[in-house]
Amino acid sequence: MFLSLAVLGLLVSFPFITKAQTTSRSTTTVLSTGAEGADVAKVQQILIDKGLLILPPNITTGYYGNLTTDAVSKYQAQVNIPQTGVLDSATQTAIGVKVTATAATPVTPTYTPPTPTVLTPTPVYPTPTPADNGCSNGEIYSSTTGQACFPPGCTSFSGYSQTTGLACNGSQTSFPAGCTSNIGYSSTTGLACNGSQSSFPAGCTSFSGYSSTTGLACNGSVITPTPTPTSGHHNELVNFEWISTPFVASTFAGVESAKVYSTCPNDKVLLGGGYSLYNNPGSQLRVSMNGPVSNNMYGFAVNGPLDSITSGNIYITCADIMQENN
């Protein structure tokens, strides 16, 4: 009887041993810098919707770079999670995204050492090539650093390139005719390469020579025109006065356009005038009118923003006319 019970106990416990099975288990996948794929794009869209992630123009989602790392750190700070920039389990639970992967059964690797072969080395001297920052083939992100690829001479998408002068946000693709940067003057038109000038002084077609209407030098310096005598009497210019008035940009804060005038004092006659304006590179400043307004007044109209002007002057030459009979 005792033997039968023992056998029965063995039969009862045996099935529990034979039915034991290995089940797959899942583990949370941590996303960090360098990760790619649909899960990264899903997290990026959530961060964009929350206003924590702003991607540069023409950049698609799906790559976990430094911008995404910073945005995740900002979100972790909002929900009181350690700011690691890594989308770990706690951060995935808080943001509502779960990235999982099935753990594979470990396999013990085997290694068979190869049979050594004696080779006679032939020296190869590679041709030196310029250093590649991973952005030489038009990549959006560097293939070597993972950083965003900025235009040459730029360290961000704002401002202007230190090597080409073009806007770093890609809005500018070429310079004015005769210019190779935003600095200096055009070799074909003589106008400023930063776009601050749209015309030459009255009576001038370049910055060389003298005005055909005022007699003033086209490069902004002032000379005195020789008066033309008339029969019976001649006019003589006396009491010359050169006046330079500073252009105070602070008085035009927020103003998009204005007309600026300078007048000869004491009823003197205007001989000529000009202006010089210096503005911030890239500002869209245009002078639409430039010349005498009356016998003793000179002016010009400028379209702004005027507060982009860093310095400038409007200058005129005045004189009295003394008439003498022959």
Q: Which secondary structure elements does this structure contain, and how are they paired or packed?
A:
Layout: H1 2-18, E1 26-28, H2 38-49, H3 66-78, H4 89-95, E2 100-102, E3 233-246, E4 257-263, E5 269-279, E6 286-294, E7 297-303, E8 309-325
Antiparallel strand pairs: 1-2, 3-8, 4-7, 5-8, 6-7
Task: Note down, in words, how this protein is organized.
With 326 residues, the protein is of the alpha+beta class. Among the domains are: 27-102, Muramoyl-pentapeptide Carboxypeptidase, domain 1 (Orthogonal Bundle), CATH 1.10.101; 150-192, no CATH class; 233-325, Sandwich (Immunoglobulin-like), CATH 2.60.40. Helices cover 15% and strands 22% of the residues. The chain contains four helices and eight strands, in the order H-E-H-H-H-E-E-E-E-E-E-E. Strands 3-8-5 form a three-stranded antiparallel beta sheet, with no helix packed on it. It has a three-stranded antiparallel beta sheet with strand order 4-7-6, with no helix packed on it. Strands 1-2 form a two-stranded antiparallel ribbon. The model is unreliable at 1-25 and 102-109 (pLDDT under 50).
